[in-house]
């Protein structure tokens, strides 16, 4: 399984679409690694400076309807090659969420109050995901900590354990 | 309890139930284009899984950037072309016969009522117009679809959208779907299938139904879907005459896919279109919609008529109504991209291409091109495009460009006026 812990990158906006995550002009690339420098290049978010803000971040925490728009799995891969394997949001667009689990990555949905709580911790802390206990533990830089439980569909969990849908489907169908 | 059309299609294609809320379905048609498929092909090759589940159930087209504009897009085309040859995929469409996937594949009769259809493209929902379950998927789903002929979905939940009233002259399916998205927002139908029904839909052509279903994804919907009826049977007749005795018999047969009257819906929405005005997007999200009249006078640099939403013959005819014997404003660049070669030919036969050209439009070959900012009309920073496409995202048609989505009629009116204007003035 992939690494599911690290510092959070907070994207405080709803409806962030996959064109913002990776613009269409990079869809001509035929390797995942070529996408790496273009992460969130067209993101429309006040005060966001992608070059500085993503350094050392491994988890994205955001609002609702994350990953809407184009079906491009490139949006998931650009996170993967930047070592971001978890997105925590109030809700996801269907194709993006499925693409995350299909790649053995985590798309975790939490109620708005829990998302607010994580936002309130600030950017210095770290977040850990415990897949066995369905538990998110977050620590702020100032030593505050909190734990939040999440629910996970059993099939999604199988996909993460198998390392993605290709491996799962190849062994079963 | 009755069943919805989606539940009937799911039940008829069920391969596995990996969890109480997930299903794995057998897929009837896997559609492919050169943007998302090459990377799936390369990945399958690298895993020693370079086989296809059934070459006759895979259809492929080079449509997004064609003819290739540079070495990278040429390579994408080549990977798809070589793969189609290697696996004997006969329904492969290249230069000369290619067009925008969601316009081309229905035209070839590949989509039938009751089918399951996937493609690595979010606007696959368009094909639901035929009473099929058609969903856009990512590359991994596409790989598994190509390799195994299956795809996983959550249990289907349906939003029933009943459209009543009578569409005023100059108001179209595009205005209806923009109005619906305006009402329910960009995630109003997330994880739901949008079932369009009611007298307005019953009267719509297949082209209009495709426009309606095309933008279901813009409300987050998994698919749009319409009940297959006489309109569907007549459209498909050239392709189904061997399997059906008559159009009447096909219409009867298609009824097996209709939702039952007592089916259970997750949500219901009712919209009366009798007073609907032409709609337009003003921001960077497809639910940021106003009446066209509210943006009267707002200048545009380019007008784009084309795409899987509104590049069909009916759309071209409507725009030509306004362009006939008129010139587009000198400050505007007009770009027409008929969605398929058949549409292009038909538009030539009907004199529509000449009307566009006389008005001052540039006519491109069938391709996605400018719709996703790849070629044939990319915007410069700060430019504004009146467009018949489906996405107004920031940067969609070129970095720093602004896209206003509207119907072909409203776009043609903007071209003539040089700014956004009520198309009613010209008809
Ligand atoms: S026309 Fe535009 S929306 Fe339609 S398939 Fe092509 S790029 Fe996608």
Describe the structure.
The complex is a heterodimer of chains A (173) and B (427). By secondary structure, chain A is of the alpha/beta class. Chain A is built from seven helices and seven strands, in the order βααβαβαβαβββαα. In chain A, strands 4-3-2-1-5-6-7 form a seven-stranded mixed beta sheet. In chain A, a hairpin with a 4-residue loop joins strand 5 and strand 6. The radius of gyration of chain A is 15 Å and the shape is globular. Chain A starts with a strand and ends with a helix. By secondary structure, chain B is an alpha/beta fold. Chain B folds into two domains: 267 residues, Aconitase, domain 3; 147 residues, 2-Layer Sandwich (Aconitase, domain 3), CATH 3.30.499.10. Chain B has a five-stranded parallel beta sheet. A five-stranded parallel beta sheet of chain B has the order 17-16-15-18-19. In chain B, strands 11-10-9-12 form a four-stranded parallel beta sheet. Chain B is globular, with a radius of gyration of 21 Å. The model of chain B has no long low-confidence stretch (mean pLDDT 97). At the A-B interface, helix 4, helix 6 and helix 7 of A face strand 1, helix 2, helix 3, helix 5 and strand 8 of B.
